[in-house]
Amino acid sequence: MAEDFKAGFTGSPSAPPEEIRKAAKTAAEVVRRETTAIATGAADHPETTTSLLLGVGAIAFAIGYFVGRGSRDEYSYWR
């Protein structure tokens, strides 16, 4: 019965290590290129970048505040 169970990794990888390295290198190049594009856009438009960061920070603060308020006990120990 144990021989019929085919879960998990039971063989060799379908792609040789050279192809996996090539795919990883390509993915790293794409991430590097996109990061450079974001940094260039932020440098070209500092006001927009600041506004976006402040907006996201305010939304994150509000979510944290309301989650914290919602998780508090009904009884107030400090009166």
TrEMBL record:
Region (Disordered): 1-26
Domain of life: Bacteria
Keywords per UniProt: Membrane, Plasmid, Transmembrane, Transmembrane helix
Chain ranges passing through the membrane: 50-68
Official protein name in the record: Transmembrane protein
Species for this entry: Rhizobium grahamii CCGE 502
